[in-house]
Each structure stands twice: as C-alpha cells, then as structure tokens.
Amino acid sequence: MQIKIINKSAHALPHYETIASAGMDLRANIEESIILKPLERTIVPTGLFLELPIGIEAQVRPRSGLAIKKGVTVLNAPGTVDADYRGEVGVILVNLSSEEFTIENGERIAQLVIAKHERTEWLEVETLSKTDRGEGGFGSTGVK
Question: Are 114 and 21 in contact (CB under 8 A)?
Fold first, then answer.
C-alpha cells in the first residue's frame, strides 16, 4: 500500500527497522529542546502530513524503550490519525517519571502503525445472545 506524505522535517521518512516491524519511529521536529517536567504533557510536532485512504488509520503508539527507560509515553495511546485529517501529525507525550525529560530535535518519540479499520451500523435490540462468560468483566477470564 502506498500512502501520500509530506515531510517538512529535516529527518528521513519513517521506515520499518526490520522485515517484521509493525511500527515506524516518529521523530521530534522541533527548533529548540523541550523540557518535559514530571507529570507534564505536551504536543510534539513531527513535520509529517499524511493523506490516508478511507478505511485506513495511522495509530500513534508509545515506544517501549522510552517508556521503560525514561517513563515517557504517548498520553492518548494509541492516538488515531483519521483518513480525512490533513494537518501535521503531532504526538502527545507525558512524563510519568519523577525526573525531567528533555526532548531533542530528531529524537524518536513514538511509533506509527498503519492499520485497516471497519465502520459499523448499530442494530439496536432488546437482548444479546448468551455466553459462558456472560457479564463477567475485568479479570473474569483468568484462572481462579
């Protein structure tokens, strides 16, 4: 699948690091470093603009290394870039650590996963079919 992209950053286009990678790293496109204090959040621009086909979304997800090593993650994970959005892809980062984190230009801040999605029409009914699980919620399928 080919997707139209405008790259207004000084960085290479996002790309897959390995043949089995699901995501591509997004890089910060900033003129000055951003200091993210503990529990602070900000939108980090990427300089990327996408034209996604209808039925495709771009999911902005955290980078596991940044999360475990620095406590920094994508706040609305996964963030969704819709097919009709033409603005710059931004990443909402939050610092969940107890130390300041400095975001530098070109730093890998998130990953982008391209995914198909479905649309639905609701069929309103009075009852739903029965299952063994029934209304068992969070943690109800684990071993007892």
Answer: no
Nearest Cα to Cα of residue 99 among 72, 75, 76: 72
**pLDDT one-digit tens code per residue, 41-70:** 999 999 999 999 999 999 999 999 999 999
Give the predicted TM-score (pTM) of the model: 0.89
- What b/e sequence results for 91-129 when a residue is b if at least 16 CB atoms lie within 10 Å of its CB, and e otherwise? bbbbbebeeebebeeebebbbbebeeeeeeeeeeeeeee
Report the distance separating Cα 86 and Cα 99, nearest Å. 35
Cα-Cα end-to-end distance for the chain: 45
CA 44, CA 103: separation in Å to the nearest integer? 9
CA distance 73 to 144: 33
Where do the domains of the chain lie, and which CATH numbers do they carry? 4-116 (2.70.40.10)
Could you give the dihedral angle defined by the CA atoms of residues 28, 20, 64 and 47, in that order, rounded to the nearest 10 degrees? 10
- C-alpha dihedral, 7 to 11 to 15 to 16, nearest 10°: -150
Is residue 89 within 8 A of residue 46, CB to CB? The reply is yes
